[in-house]
Design goal:
Blueprint: H1 16-23, H2 28-34, H3 39-46, H4 49-59, E1 62-64, H5 74-90, E2 95-98, E3 107-111, E4 114-118, E5 122-127, E6 138-143, E7 149-155, E8 160-165, E9 175-183, E10 197-202, H6 203-206, E11 216-222, E12 225-231, E13 240-246, E14 254-259, E15 265-270, E16 273-277, E17 282-287, E18 296-302, E19 310-317, E20 340-342, E21 348-357, E22 364-372, H7 373-387, H8 399-402, E23 407-412, E24 421-423, E25 426-431, E26 444-449, H9 452-456, E27 471-473, E28 495-499, E29 508-511, E30 515-521, E31 527-534
Antiparallel strand pairs: 1-20, 2-31, 3-4, 4-5, 5-6, 7-8, 8-9, 9-10, 11-12, 12-13, 13-14, 15-16, 16-17, 17-18, 19-21, 21-22, 22-23, 24-25, 25-26, 26-28, 27-28, 29-30, 30-31
Length: 535
């Protein structure tokens, strides 16, 4: 009986259609490495719109969203992605609209293409238009009790509205706040919530007898977690607090952290890790590894040391897309208004720093510095290798070991907008060209893009287009020491910058993946107008 001889074939001998189906399972980095192995694979990758689309998504640090996007041909998706980025590169917005006067309340939130503002008896919501649709503003509202409401926030991707309010008279004394978990679209109790109302700052948990309900709170949603920072609630206590819940957990997971040195702000840098900024120039990483215990501090690191008679007075972060809070879009009631969103694997972190002279209250110094989330996460292992487990009064990673090589700083003049807005790797802020810090004159808008891929390949782009006005600011390590610091700051992150030629009547800015909101205030800092630029 004859034998059947099986002849081995190489990878490149497979039919191109079959090979393409295999290669789409690779990530962008593997595709780039593979195309360097031989001419045949290079040609296959370069001539496949789907494989080039995968590489482009990685290059622009974006992810596609929306089920309808999967039905669009890869060539069209790739074209949309490049057009989306080019619009930001050239500051070419596609349309402009103005929010109605009812949206000008003093307390507001913006995220997921929705702007919300708290009025006297209700919270007003507006779903903003995008470049891919021609719809007008879609507005709705939910009633609230103005005598008891304290704060609110929402997550559009989870159809979740969180309202913080004082409890009814019958519950006064047992806890300080009621945290209501509602549907953003219907205002009903949220169907995924383990319980419709959470008790905030429960006296039985904090073991404190004197509770003062006129304190200040700041509430955030991070995936399955709701966090609330609490200041000046316990009389004669001298501490600040952070309370957090897993709002979907039927086991009632929650905890309270006490901060003896005060806390200015916190921000999640991974689904189970958050960054805490205190009032003494220290940053700490906390990790949620065991839900039977409160989060554990895993690393401490310092901001630059200061000259004598100077001290940090305030440090806080800007909000960005939190890991796990954007994807997937699990509810049919909300669909994303843009086809692409920043990849949450790595993003920009902005820290705003205020420094004051102890002998002269007017000797005030304001700074913004930026770093990458991935760099902060790497400090956790660096701290463990250097010091082991952090302790209450133990050592901190000095600035010289991490700061200059991982941050870029900007000095903020009094006339400039201190608090910028960021999303993904982009930062936007208004520029006051007037010599007066009180000027209400129209301003230019500056966009900085810290995407390391774009900065690294800046000179490979076609800058001959007359619409191109961007400049690249290279990274550098400097030994210059500026007052009031005792050691050099950082200029390690390259970025691409573009400044609008057009002037806009706004002092503050907000942004998301496809919009810039321009906020105009009067001399009393009350909102007068909000324009929306759609890219």
């Amino acid at each position: 009986m004859g034998r059947i001889l099986m002849r081995a074939i190489t990878l490149v001998q497979l039919p191109p259609e079959l090979l393409s189906l295999i290669l789409v399972l690779l990530d962008a980095c593997d595709l780039v490495r593979m195309r360097k192995t031989c001419k045949a694979l290079k040609a296959l990758v370069d001539n496949s719109e789907m494989l080039q689309y995968i590489i482009d998504l990685c290059y622009f640090q974006m992810v596609p969203v929306g089920t309808s996007e999967q039905e669009v041909p890869p060539a069209t998706r790739r074209k949309r992605l490049r057009q989306h980025d080019a619009a930001w590169q050239r500051f070419e917005y596609k349309r402009k609209c103005t929010l109605p006067p009812m949206m000008l309340g003093p307390i507001y939130e913006f995220g997921g293409g929705i702007y919300a503002s708290a009025g006297e008896e209700c919270i007003q919501f507006a779903r903003l238009p995008s470049a891919s649709d021609s719809n007008d503003l879609h507005c709705w509202s939910h009633p609230v009790d103005p005598t008891t409401s304290v704060d609110f926030t929402f997550c559009a991707a989870q159809d979740l509205l969180v309202v913080v309010a004082f409890p009814p008279d019958s519950d006064v004394g047992s806890h300080v706040y009621d945290i209501h978990l509602r549907s953003l679209t219907t205002n009903d109790a949220h169907p995924d919530a383990a319980q419709p109302i959470l008790k905030g700052f429960d006296k039985d948990i904090i073991d404190r007898e004197i509770v003062y309900s006129a304190g200040h709170v700041d509430v955030h949603i991070i995936g399955n977690y709701i966090s609330m920072l609490i200041w000046n609630v316990v009389i004669y206590d001298g501490m600040n607090y952070m309370q957090m819940w897993d709002w979907k957990s039927k086991k009632g997971y929650q905890f309270i952290l006490f901060f003896n040195n005060g806390i200015n702000d916190c921000s999640f840098i991974a689904e189970d890790k958050f960054l805490v900024l205190d009032s003494r120039g220290t940053m700490e990483i906390y990790s949620i590894t065991d839900k039977s215990k409160p989060p554990q501090c895993t690393a401490k690191f310092s901001l630059p040391s200061l000259m004598d008679h100077f001290s940090y007075t305030e440090t806080f972060t800007d909000e960005n897309t939190a890991p796990g809070s954007m994807f997937p879009y699990s509810r049919k009631s909300y669909q994303p208004s843009c086809s692409f969103h920043p990849n949450t694997n790595d993003q920009l972190i902005a820290i705003h720093v205020s420094i004051a002279g102890e002998r002269n209250a007017n000797d005030l110094h304001l700074y913004n510095f930026f770093t990458l989330r991935s760099a902060i996460l790497e400090l956790e292992s660096l701290f463990a290798r250097t010091y082991g487990q952090p302790t209450l009064d133990g050592p901190k990673l000095p600035w010289s070991m991490w700061g200059p090589q991982h941050t870029t700083w900007f000095r903020v003049q009094k006339k400039e907008d201190w608090q910028s807005s960021l999303y993904g790797f982009r930062v936007v802020q208004s520029i006051n060209d007037s010599p007066s810090d009180l000027s209400r004159e129209p301003r230019r808008i500056c966009i900085r893009d810290f995407n390391p891929h774009i900065a690294r390949n800046y000179h490979a782009q076609d800058t001959s287009d007359w619409r191109w006005r961007g400049v690249l600011v290279q990274s550098e390590l400097t030994s210059i020491i500026s007052r009031p610091f005792k050691e050099p700051l950082g200029s390690a992150l390259p970025y691409r910058e573009i400044v609008s030629e057009e002037l806009f009547d706004a002092e503050d800015t907000l942004m998301d993946e496809s919009r810039i909101l321009l906020l105009k205030r009067d001399e009393f800092e009350e909102l007068q107008n909000i324009d929306v630029l759609v890219f």
